[in-house]
Amino acid sequence: MSLEKAVVARFHAKDYIFEIYVDLEKALQFREGKIKNIGEVLIVEEVYKDIKKGERVSESVLKKVFGTTDIYEIASKIVKEGDIQITSEYRRKLINQKRKQIIETIRRLVIDPRTSLPFTPQRIEEMLEQVKVNIDPFKPVELQTNEIIKQLKKKFPLKVEITKLKVHIPYEYVKAVNILKKKYKVLKEDWVDNGWIAIIEVPSGIKSEFFSDLGKLTNGEGYSEEIK
């Protein structure tokens, strides 16, 4: 990536300013743990005190503030804890993406205790608007979702419920096992004489979705039973 498309990540500490050039998309992915290698994020392996003037930070200052002069350690801290420069338009895009992810997560996790049914995405959207929830484009979905559910519970009847299911899938449907493991949380699993046995956690909001997946993936030959 050229410098024309790079953005600045900025970090303040001990009366100093530290700036680095980063790839915006990859920097955000690094923050969320989707990218582990900070080398993929950095555009220029230098730390600046004024990036516009091209003024670099001295090694003595880096050592004083970060305890190291290792560019990767320093860049990791700047990207994780500093501010990343983005346009207002891109910020709106990130918020909309995060909002959709949060709505889907809430849909999976909660049910209406009055009907024992999950909420529709449209209803969750309405509740978020009524509570005036603020979406942080940089904060992980899981952390925000927990806080938002707490806010929603103050105004609306919500119930977070997780069901544990014992699942059996015959050997001939081994592909179904991989698909289910990617989509649902497997607590325990084992291969036995007649197939795959597992204990799976399924949010009550998507229990019917799980049963549908299990039936389709195994042609109705897989089965499950609820663990009380």
Q: What structural category characterises the helix and strand content?
A: alpha+beta
The low-confidence runs, each spanning 5 or more residues with pLDDT under 50, are: none
Can you count the helices? 8
Structural Rg: 23 Å
Helix content: 40-55%
Query: At CATH's second level, what is the architecture of the largest domain?
Result: 2-Layer Sandwich
| Percent in strands | 25-35%
The biggest beta sheet reads:
4 strands, antiparallel
End-to-end separation: 54 Å
- Number of DSSP E strands: 12
User: Which fold name is given in CATH as the topology of the largest domain?
Assistant: Hypothetical 12.0 Kda Protein In Nam8-gar1 Intergenic Region, Chain: A
What is the typical, i.e. mean, pLDDT? 91
Oligomeric organization of the protein chains: single chain
Biggest sheet: strand arrangement: 10-11-9-12
Secondary-structure element pattern, one letter each = EEHEEHHEHEEHHEEHEEHE
Q: Overall 3D geometry? A: elongated
Q: In total, how many domains does the architecture comprise?
A: 3
